[in-house]
Amino acid sequence: MPGNNRRQAKKEIAVMGAKVAKLNIEGTDTGVNIDVDGASEGIHIEYEILANVMAVIVQEALDATKHDQGN
């Protein structure tokens, strides 16, 4: 059943975490939590909008790279 696979994937994400520099990234049942070491609060991005948020982040990074290269 596709629904069961999706629930299982979310369950697996919930126990996973990652660290990038000072960023702590952790999947939850409803989205992704991102916080900075020592910060009192972080940000929660719901799965519903995560793809759009990631697309904007990637576009900003590409634009910055083009700008740095003089294009």
| Strand order, sheet with most strands | 1-2-3-4
Q: Count helical runs.
A: 2
Straight-line N-to-C gap: 48 Å
* Largest sheet features: 4 strands, antiparallel
Report what the structure shows:
Helix content is 51%, strand content 27%. The chain is of the alpha+beta class. It has a four-stranded antiparallel sheet with strand order 1-2-3-4. A hairpin with a 6-residue loop joins strand 3 and strand 4 (43-46). It starts with a helix and ends with a helix.
Topology:
Layout: H1 2-15, E1 17-20, E2 23-27, E3 31-36, E4 43-46, H2 47-68
Antiparallel strand pairs: 1-2, 2-3, 3-4
List keywords for this structure.
single chain, 71 residues, alpha+beta, 4 strands, extended
In short:
The protein is α+β, with helices and mostly antiparallel strands.
